[in-house]
DNA sequence: CGCTACATTGAGTGAGTTCAAAATGCGTGG
DNA sequence: CCACGCATTTTGAACTCACTCAATGTAGCG
């Protein structure tokens, strides 16, 4: 599109924005991982047979702002995030773009490339990061050799599909407040699973990027953060978030509410029958 | 044309609402299909080896209003639509529900069940329909025997993921008019591919269902149809649609527009590969 | 320091929702 | 066959949430 391949974004991601305990990217730079290590990252249970596989998967490092793949680029590898934070962006026919996900440690991306052998979206590093290249051919061949691995692959793809469905559902039915609350809950839970603090963390993305992801404007995101702050649900200062009332966020809705009244009534009727 | 067999819902789907050339469901009732027939339906290219497979897949018929599977139900089969129209519905923790897709001939559904071995959404027949049961175990075993088939399976799953991504993108960025226009374009193209008229067709779903799918209220859907009618883009009478200006629908946007200005500017900045 | 990107906050507007009422279409039961 | 009942659709009027436009504040970097 508009390739200006020089300078990575100026002052994009200060150290202060790193997560507590963020593995120092440069020092831990690893070059290869075994199949077992990849499966562990993806939270796939491994059998001994799989654990024995000696195939190695290459790591690649990207700096903040760098693009991992572009739209239309020929597909041949899937990616697993080992460290760092990314975004995936879809750009429609009219140049409108929309953020689809914020992959982080243990997430798989690039799956959309399988269908037409071209990536349908682009992936960009939000921070310096380390990703593992999974040549798709090799991966599916391993799946053929190890049925449990194969079904795990299907499982991971299915999980991705469910994620997108849940996203679509959220965009279709929740208010701005509810969307932002869910986003915070999601981040909190993910950070918790990754061993960081689920209460205090730093956002890796701009208000604009959050807005694009949630189908809102950056101003609405900012205002909603401020509102949560005043309500005592969180404390927010720029990218730094401190969750004070997790439960309130988790149960927040303020939904358009009556959109489905009749349909629900009908469903109740049918359930009774 | 077709005698309505005592459908549970009263006056749910009148004969007038059937598509031109709709295969007569009762008469063509088929009990089993070969792997090749299933692949053809799914638009998967088949090799001779696959064409030779003698495995048979069972058909099941559902009447309008019947449920194919529920949320939480144990997963063991995928479904391919042979005829008729369905909807898939996700219901969130608070009972809010959202329509995710309207599967029709050649579509696969149930993929979301793979991950947790339970369906994550429910599927309901909008019209009488005929679906093919694909036991997932059997399907993946066949994939292992025929690598081309396996990669086709991955391809179909990837296609589903892209569909959801595109949906999320649309819900996040398009105006009500643009969403409705896209919906009509989508239906028109699908009907065309299925050999029906892409210009004149009957909607198989209510305004409420369309609204749920598009993240709008039923009133907005109705008003938008009326507006398109007055603009001369379509002619609409209840469920009957006649598309007059396909191109205008296809290029319609009325997008929030400035949401991504800054981000686009930033996108010009690209780091070296 | 000044530059640039990012974030916050305010005021006004508008697209889409909510609530309400009337019209249409279809099946059922008299 | 017609009248009634029910689901659905259409249309109107008022409201409101989120967007737009704009100004100000903050943080890091050259």
TrEMBL record, chains A, B:
<dbReference type="InterPro" id="IPR050397">
    <property type="entry name" value="Env_Response_Regulators"/>
</dbReference>
<feature type="domain" description="HTH crp-type">
    <location>
        <begin position="174"/>
        <end position="247"/>
    </location>
</feature>
<dbReference type="InterPro" id="IPR012318">
    <property type="entry name" value="HTH_CRP"/>
</dbReference>
<dbReference type="InterPro" id="IPR036388">
    <property type="entry name" value="WH-like_DNA-bd_sf"/>
</dbReference>
<dbReference type="InterPro" id="IPR036390">
    <property type="entry name" value="WH_DNA-bd_sf"/>
</dbReference>
<dbReference type="Pfam" id="PF00027">
    <property type="entry name" value="cNMP_binding"/>
</dbReference>
<keyword id="KW-0238">DNA-binding</keyword>
<dbReference type="GO" id="GO:0003677">
    <property type="term" value="F:DNA binding"/>
</dbReference>
<dbReference type="GO" id="GO:0005829">
    <property type="term" value="C:cytosol"/>
</dbReference>
<protein>
    <submittedName>
        <fullName>Helix-turn-helix domain-containing protein</fullName>
    </submittedName>
</protein>
<keyword id="KW-0804">Transcription</keyword>
<dbReference type="GO" id="GO:0003700">
    <property type="term" value="F:DNA-binding transcription factor activity"/>
</dbReference>
<dbReference type="InterPro" id="IPR000595">
    <property type="entry name" value="cNMP-bd_dom"/>
</dbReference>
<dbReference type="InterPro" id="IPR018335">
    <property type="entry name" value="Tscrpt_reg_HTH_Crp-type_CS"/>
</dbReference>
<dbReference type="Pfam" id="PF13545">
    <property type="entry name" value="HTH_Crp_2"/>
</dbReference>
<dbReference type="InterPro" id="IPR018490">
    <property type="entry name" value="cNMP-bd_dom_sf"/>
</dbReference>
<dbReference type="InterPro" id="IPR014710">
    <property type="entry name" value="RmlC-like_jellyroll"/>
</dbReference>
<feature type="region of interest" description="Disordered">
    <location>
        <begin position="1"/>
        <end position="20"/>
    </location>
</feature>
<keyword id="KW-0805">Transcription regulation</keyword>
<feature type="domain" description="Cyclic nucleotide-binding">
    <location>
        <begin position="55"/>
        <end position="110"/>
    </location>
</feature>
């Amino acid at each position: 599109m508009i390739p200006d391949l020089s300078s990575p974004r100026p002052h994009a991601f200060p150290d202060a924005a790193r997560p507590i305990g963020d593995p120092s990217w440069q020092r831990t730079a690893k070059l290869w991982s075994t199949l077992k290590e990849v499966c562990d990252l993806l939270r796939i249970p491994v059998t001994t047979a799989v654990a024995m596989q000696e195939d190695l998967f290459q790591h690649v490092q990207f700096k903040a702002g760098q693009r991992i793949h572009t739209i239309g680029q020929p597909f041949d590898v899937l990616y697993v995030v080992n460290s760092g934070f990314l975004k995936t962006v879809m750009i429609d026919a009219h140049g409108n773009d929309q953020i689809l996900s914020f992959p982080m440690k243990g997430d798989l991306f690039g799956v959309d490339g399988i269908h037409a052998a071209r990536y349908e979206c682009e992936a960009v590093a939000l921070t310096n990061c380390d990703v593992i290249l999974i040549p798709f051919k090799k991966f599916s061949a391993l799946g053929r050799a190890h049925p449990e691995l194969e079904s795990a692959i299907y499982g991971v793809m299915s999980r991705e599909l469910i994620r997108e469905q849940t996203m679509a559902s959220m965009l279709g039915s929740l208010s701005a407040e509810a969307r932002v609350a869910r986003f915070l809950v999601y981040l909190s839970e993910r950070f918790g699973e990754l061993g960081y603090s689920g209460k205090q963390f730093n956002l890796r993305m701009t208000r604009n990027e959050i807005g694009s992801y949630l189908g809102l404007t950056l101003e609405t995101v900012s205002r909603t953060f401020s509102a949560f702050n005043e309500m005592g649900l969180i404390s927010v200062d720029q990218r730094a978030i401190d969750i004070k009332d997790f439960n309130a966020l988790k149960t927040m809705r303020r939904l358009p509410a009556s959109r489905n009244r009749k349909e629900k009534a009908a469903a109740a009727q049918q359930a009774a029958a």
